[in-house]
Design brief:
Elements (H helix, E strand, L loop, with lengths): L6 H11 L7 H11 L5 H13 L4 E3 L7 E3 L6 E4 L6 E4 L4 H13 L7 E3 L3 H15 L1
Helix pairs in contact: 1-2, 1-3, 2-3
Length: 136
């Protein structure tokens, strides 16, 4: 039954696909209510988890905040800001991905996930402003 088509699930998926911001379930819920005013938060959480189980989305565990979701299921890296929790895609030269793919093959693992930690440009900017003001 969980694999059956659902207007709610498809709306949730389309909302998730429409952004590169790696949103939380709350963010997805707010956007879905624009299309389906009667949708519940529990429905969004349940369907996001189902999309992850189906391989149509990725769940990114953010230690300091709420889990984030990504409709881009191709193997790729993320960075998480330790200050605000923002999640971003991270481009690499492919060497790391090839090494991880090889390690998965050697060990029989299903796949990999790698998250880098870095202060995002917005938080870095705010930090610089605070430093500048303290110098005056």
């Amino acid at each position: 039954m969980a694999g059956n088509y659902s207007v709610q699930r498809e709306t949730i998926y389309q909302v998730l696909k429409s952004t590169k911001t790696h949103p939380s379930a709350d963010w997805v819920y707010r956007r879905c209510r624009d299309v389906l005013p009667g949708i519940g938060l529990a429905t969004v959480y349940r369907n996001l988890e189902l999309l992850v189980e189906q391989g149509r989305a990725i769940k990114i565990n953010v230690a300091q905040g709420k889990d984030r979701y990504d409709a881009d299921v191709t193997p790729h890296f993320h960075t998480v800001c330790p200050i605000c929790g923002k999640v971003s895609d991270c481009d690499t030269d492919g060497v790391i991905a090839k090494a991880l793919d090889g390690e998965c093959e050697r060990r029989g693992y299903q796949g990999w996930s790698l998250i880098f930690t870095d202060v995002c440009p917005d938080c870095r900017s705010i930090k610089q402003i605070k430093i500048s003001r303290s110098d005056q």
